[in-house]
Amino acid sequence: MNNEKIAAVLNDLLHITNDRIAGFERVEGKVWESYSDMKGEYEHMISESKIMKNELINMISEKGGKPDDSASAAGAIHRAWIDLKNSLPVGNKEQSTLENVIYGEKIAVSAY
Questions:
Q1: Which residues, in sequence order, are CB contacts of 88 under 8 Å at separation 6+?
Q2: Closest Cα partner for 7 from 61, 53, 51?
């Protein structure tokens, strides 16, 4: 695989990582009253994502590529769906939010 293709794959992973960060930022503070025991792990995942983002940007640059430091359209749609679901007056919003985070994590793991 040449450097251009490697940089393209790394940019795809950068988009996924940016989606992860954006998703985590959307959840920030919405679930801690009910799930306070998860806050430490959540903060660790945010920190881990930011480190991964910087590493990906460095690797893309090392391969001669230009880092595309944006999120994906699919991630934006997923976050909009979560917001829409949370705007409805039914169900446990905190649990639904966490289920969506888990879904996003499964997608990210699958991509990696």
A1: none
A2: 61
Query: Residue type for 89, please?
Result: P
Alpha-carbon span 66 to 54, nearest angstrom: 13
Query: Which tokens belong to 50?
Result: 């930011």
Q: Which of 80, 84, 104, 83 is nearest to 30 (CA)?
A: 83
Q: Are 60 and 67 in contact (CB under 8 A)?
A: yes
Over the chain (112 residues), the average pLDDT of each successive run of 10 is 91 92 79 81 89 96 93 83 76 77 83 80
Q: What's the start-to-end Cα distance of the chain, in Å?
A: 17
How many residues are listed for the chain in this entry? Answer: 112
With a threshold of 0.85, does the pTM exceed it?
no
Quickly count: other Cβ atoms within 10 Å of residue 21's Cβ. 18
User: For residue 5, what pLDDT is reported?
Assistant: 94
